Amino acid sequence: MKYISLFNTLKAEISNGTFPSGTHIPHTAELLKQYHVSLTTVVKAVKLLEKQGLVKRIKSKGTFVLDEGQRNLMGYQKKERIGLIFKGFLSSEMNTHFFVKAYQGLENICREQGKRLIPLGTEERDMAALLQEIENAGISGVVIYALYDGSLFAGLKRMGIPVVCCDFIDHTLPIDQVTTDHIRGGTLAIHQLHELGHRKVLFFGNYQHKKRQNDRDHDYWNLAAANEARRQGIKQYSDHFISFGGGEEMMKKEMRRIIESHADHTGFICASASFALLLKTILESNGLSDKLSRDTILFSDLDEPITIFDRKVIQCRWDTRDMGRVSGEVLLNILKGGPHHPGMHYIPMEIRS
Known about the structure:
Layout: H1 2-15, H2 28-35, H3 39-51, E1 55-58, E2 62-65, H4 68-79, E3 81-86, H5 90-93, H6 97-112, E4 116-121, H7 127-137, E5 141-145, H8 150-158, E6 163-166, E7 176-180, H9 182-195, E8 200-208, E9 213-214, H10 216-232, E10 236-242, H11 248-261, E11 267-270, H12 273-284, E12 295-300, E13 307-308, E14 311-312, E15 314-317, H13 320-335, E16 344-347, E17 350-352
Parallel strand pairs: 3-4, 3-5, 5-6, 6-7, 7-16, 8-10, 8-11, 11-12, 12-15
Antiparallel strand pairs: 1-2, 8-9, 13-14, 15-17
Helix pairs in contact: 1-3, 6-13, 7-8, 9-10
């Protein structure tokens, strides 16, 4: 964005004393001529300088560079605002328990540290519009929930706004990410089934049809579980990724086919509650009994228990509120300044019967 480039140039000139405190920066016409940019670029760059607390526009007089004390006050006010970026609309996301818990965890740490949390849904707009809102709101740092968009990250980087990703994992990106400890989760799931005597295990995870790839969380849990199965000597471990896109009936049909073709498998791992509930329906339906004493592990943070026949589904849990809280803690530490190297931050997983 050209206005970001002009903003950075003017910011540097204020910092090096080219425009001392109390003096005004060149008028709009001069900036247009000097930097060969459009009127829109100049207006947006100066507006961003003002939002950063570097200048103040006075009607009919010009735009003046603030002194250090005034800048500190403006900077303090800006630091009060933390953005939470997520896909879609807030009204719909507040109906999903994962988002609600992450939101609560982040909101709690912001409140404790005297920060204001501002939710920013992508809604039905492009990333340029979202970046404009972030600029207008004077956001100092953002947590991005379960979302990646290259243009969004590039724009935030140009604006000098630090980012932490919550409930997201991509080891190729040099960004702070907070996610579950997949290796521990997959390992614990197999260990528990092995302890219960199961030597034949089925894994069910989600295939994301639009992205043409397995859900990353599900994939990492599966890789860890498969590795532990080999270590434990479980030779019959079979993973199956099914798309949610075809609807519940198609998922149920595919799961039933898999289960019936592996009729002697007694251990199940479900990467989401959707699979556990379908498994319950299939196994409890007519024609399938529990003579084989099946057990199921579910990766989840659900508060409500699920039972299949009279056996409780065993949860391999994490705390999503903690995920939101840790995301906030990491971001606030970045905002304090000092040396920082982006990394992965793992939320522990534990077996809960």
